[in-house]
Amino acid sequence: FAVDGESVMLNILDCAMIDVMALFRELVVDACTGFIIAYSVTDRESFDRACFWKDLVLKSRADDAISGRIC
Asked: How crowded is the C-beta side of 51, counted as CA atoms within 13 Å?
């Protein structure tokens, strides 16, 4: 699809099974330009995984990362 006349591609990465991708975490973060991290409010493990990814993104992309929250 296009944003402001520029073609963009959206990749959706489901990290629920993160163990499968343990070796590729940094590669995944480096390859992406935007992130939406979601979690279940009824599952503490889901929240903990979301925190892990947020920290990884902020560490890897500290120079251009913006953190926000939508409730």
From this structure: 7
Nearest-angstrom CA–CA distance, 55 and 13? 17
Q: What are phi and psi of 3, to 5 degrees?
A: -125, 120
Q: Tell me: the pLDDT tens digits for 15-34?
A: 665 565 666 777 777 777 77
pLDDT for the residue 42: 92
Whole-model pTM? 0.65
What is residue 25's predicted lDDT score, i.e. its pLDDT?
A: 76
User: DSSP per residue over the chain, as a string?
Assistant: -EETTEE--------TTGGGGGGGHHHHHHH-S-------TT-HHHHHHHHHHHHHHHHHTTTT-------
